[in-house]
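thread: overnight batch results

M.L. [08:02]
morning all. the overnight job finished for the chain we discussed friday. pasting input first so we're all looking at the same thing
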Amino acid sequence: MPLANLARTEMNETTNKTETFSNIINGDKPVLVDFFAEWCGPCKMMKPILEELREKMGDDIRIIKVDIDKSPAASSHYNVTSVPTLMLFQRGKILWRQPGVVPAVSLQKIISHFISQNNAQ
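M.L. [08:03]
and the structure it wrote out:
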């Protein structure tokens, strides 16, 4: 499946629309992508962390999850070799990436840094 056709939904229960991965990461709003696998224990730890982050950051960021087993083209394209891997995108550019579990407080600081940096431009 071509990367442009890969569709993902947000971690927001009220969102009913489906957009392409490319459309989402090329937007003005920062997008945190969680590359994960169902069989991955540490990946399961990220779900409540991302839910906490969603509550803290609200509409300042979009959070999406990409299952590497169901979307191998995306994981290959971004050279995801371990899960979980978190990547922050804005306007199609990778602003930050890190493998492993990252606490919500740390994620909020990282994302807020990039938001304030981009607002200053």
